[in-house]
Amino acid sequence: MGNYTITVLPGDGIGPEVTEQAILVLDAIASRYQHTFTYHKRLVGVAAIEAEGEAISDESLALCRQSDAILFGAVGGRSDYAGRDKVKPEQALFKLRKGLQFFANLRPVKPLKNLLSASSIKPEILQGTDLLVVRELTGGLYYGHLEPPVPGKPSEIRQTEHGTEAIDTLLYTEAEIERILRVAFEVARDRQKKVTSVDKANVLSSSVLWRQVANRVAAEYPDVAFEHLLVDACAMHLIRKPTSFDVIVTENLFGDILTDEASMLAGSMGMLPSASLGTQKTAHGRLGLYEPIHGSAPDIAGQGKANPIAAILSAAMLLHYSLGLKDEAFAIEAAVAKTIEEGYRTEDLREAGATIINTQQMGQKIAAAVLK
Ligand SMILES: NC(=O)c1ccc[n+]([C@@H]2O[C@H](COP(=O)([O-])OP(=O)(O)OC[C@H]3O[C@@H](n4cnc5c(N)ncnc54)[C@H](O)[C@@H]3O)[C@@H](O)[C@H]2O)c1
């Protein structure tokens, strides 16, 4: 029985539709386990640009910082809004990630047994897959482009006496590598106790350092099995024997590519949650931002076709990682599995014999299953 404060940023397109269902399910958890969740709802994305002139206001950001966790929908998808030449909705995510130092992105992939046929991978290969990719989110190649330019991290197209050239910088400090490795080992202790560290140490200096740090950190977790894998081999094993993985930890660019590949194992974008964890500790755990991996899906917004399960499973991750409520998180996962087992599907998972229901009905079914 506890009191928790959650900042809710529903955003644009299907963001508000799926977030509403995640809250419905959180309310069912509150009722079953006698918790109090206080929600502070704020605008983000196009909705915030139109009403407040920026993708996320400083007040909303401050509120996020003070809460126990952040539940995020999706932003973007509209190009007809006032102020579009000055502000982009995606700036909200950059501001949140940078402002709150969300350096660890967690993406679990656990295809449900009743949905194995929804993936393009053969069911016998998928059966039993339950992996989590931990991606470093604030360093590496993608952070050279920051404005103003970061000293020592050039990222630009430039003219030289030999012609035009382009440069990006892949820079990691030992401290950045160590903190993401620690997140991976800590979460592995809660799972199957295996970490695969993915790099390109046969070519890149940053990967050689990554490997050295990984070896040092691994020695502190003797209860967790540990292996190194080159990123090209990892890409292959992900679709050849995905069951061989528990926790995969890797740097920003490799993680970006591998998480998209891994997401295909689950069949639909509408099934995959994510968490971004920061450095800030709260009374119950670590401050985090939880969101479905999909975007605002303007093609289906307002039609009741959005699958809310990715948002609902994001709420489960919120309970697990930021509030320390693991039983409650498992209760949501079990309710999702049961609802799918009973044959209910949203449009994206249409198959013969299934009962097709809308976004709201899916939320209600899962909330009801939590309470059973
Ligand atoms: N974190 C974010 O807020 C985020 C992430 C990705 C994309 N975006 C933005 O979203 C907008 C649309 O991008 P996109 O179309 O490339 O990607 P998208 O994820 O929004 O949609 C891709 C396809 O998947 C379908 N889809 C997505 N989520 C679904 C769900 N829950 N249920 C059923 N079907 C679902 C969509 O209908 C669409 O056909 C863009 O403006 C993009 O910048 C935002």
From TrEMBL:
User: Where is this protein localized, as stated in its record?
Assistant: Cytoplasm
The coenzyme or cofactor needed here is: Mg(2+); Mn(2+)
Q: Name one GO biological process term.
A: L-leucine biosynthetic process
Q: What is its EC number?
A: 1.1.1.85
Positions binding substrate in this chain are: R97, R107, R135, D232
How is this protein annotated for GO cellular component?
cytosol
Database matches in Pfam families: Iso_dh (PF00180)
Q: Which residues form the signal peptide?
A: none
Tell me where in this chain the Isopropylmalate dehydrogenase-like domain is found: 5-366
Q: What keywords are assigned to this protein?
A: Amino-acid biosynthesis, Branched-chain amino acid biosynthesis, Cytoplasm, Leucine biosynthesis, Magnesium, Manganese, Metal-binding, NAD, Oxidoreductase
Q: Which reaction does it catalyse?
A: (2R,3S)-3-isopropylmalate + NAD(+) = 4-methyl-2-oxopentanoate + CO2 + NADH
Q: Which InterPro entries match?
A: IsoCit/isopropylmalate_DH_CS (IPR019818), IsoPropMal-DH-like_dom (IPR024084), Isopropylmalate_DH (IPR004429)
Q: Which family does it belong to?
A: Belongs to the isocitrate and isopropylmalate dehydrogenases family. LeuB type 1 subfamily.
Q: What does this protein do?
A: Catalyzes the oxidation of 3-carboxy-2-hydroxy-4-methylpentanoate (3-isopropylmalate) to 3-carboxy-4-methyl-2-oxopentanoate. The product decarboxylates to 4-methyl-2 oxopentanoate.
The name this protein goes by in its record: 3-isopropylmalate dehydrogenase
Its source organism is Dictyobacter vulcani
